[in-house]
Specification:
Helix content: 25-40%
Structural class: alpha/beta
Strand order of the largest sheet: 1-2-3-4-5-6-7
Strand content: 15-25%
Order of helices and strands: HHEEEEHEHHEHEEEEEHEHHHH
CATH superfamily: Ribonuclease Z/Hydroxyacylglutathione hydrolase-like
CATH class: Alpha Beta
Amino acid sequence: MKKLLLLLLFGLSPLLLAQDFDDVEIQTLKVRDNIYMLVGQGGNITMQTGNDGILIIDTQYAELSGKILTAIRELSDGPIRHIINTHHHGDHVGGNANLKAAGFTPVGGNVGGDLGDAGEGARILAHENVLLNMAQDPDVDPEMWPTLTYFTEKKDFWFNDEGVRVLHQPNAHTNGDSIVFFRKSDVITTGDAYITSYYPFIDMSAGGTINGFIDAANAIIDLIIPVYGQDGGTLVIPGHGRLSDIGDVINWREMLTIVRDRIKDMKDRGMTLEEVLAARPTSDYDPRWAGERIFSTENFVTSVYMTLED
């Protein structure tokens, strides 16, 4: 049942792939310098442009690839060189094959000096757990798989005159989350390790935990330098929702931490999951964060309870 729910939500099911995307529009926001945020249906896309070509982070759904390419071409006519996947869910990787085919990898790849696969479409970079999670699902076309993975804490490379740092966030939303830091532009892309729309979805089937989410929030905050107090400075593109700064991420972290501590206290006192749900430990946060289905209060509280160590 859990697998079916995940498939229905994240676009790996024919039932969802058959939905009507005709009315979806790709909205473009210039974030800073040569960094753009593309919003449609599914996870937010980050796009970096420059003399070396185009780098994009996440690809939404395959049915939207034509519209996404149109939006990209309105911003740049450069070649798509690199795609980074922040994790393996279908609303972030569904367009991988299409956007890869629309690109071109130069000799050397501009990723850490790696050679190989020149001309075979854009290179797709992700943590190795993204590849493992996708390869275990028979419904995922191998053309969508990452073509280059990393297994260490980070992957650094130079592209479009700035350093790009890809940082693994273990066991947050999934076991393969990456956040991406554009050092010169001072922009961070987080994938679903940080969102502004609803309570987080802790994907327990892929190693997600509440403590991993909090660790990821702290890692994001550690990279941010504000202009004043909690305003301005480093900008953050979330997996879903609006462009953010440090104040937004701190509010997110505090919500996660407070809810975690409340539920941990109840669990430590021997309360069952049913008793914790009845106690409504998130009641003061529900008006802001509660969503539907896997973003619901019940699912969030259950996931926090289940992923806390006894």
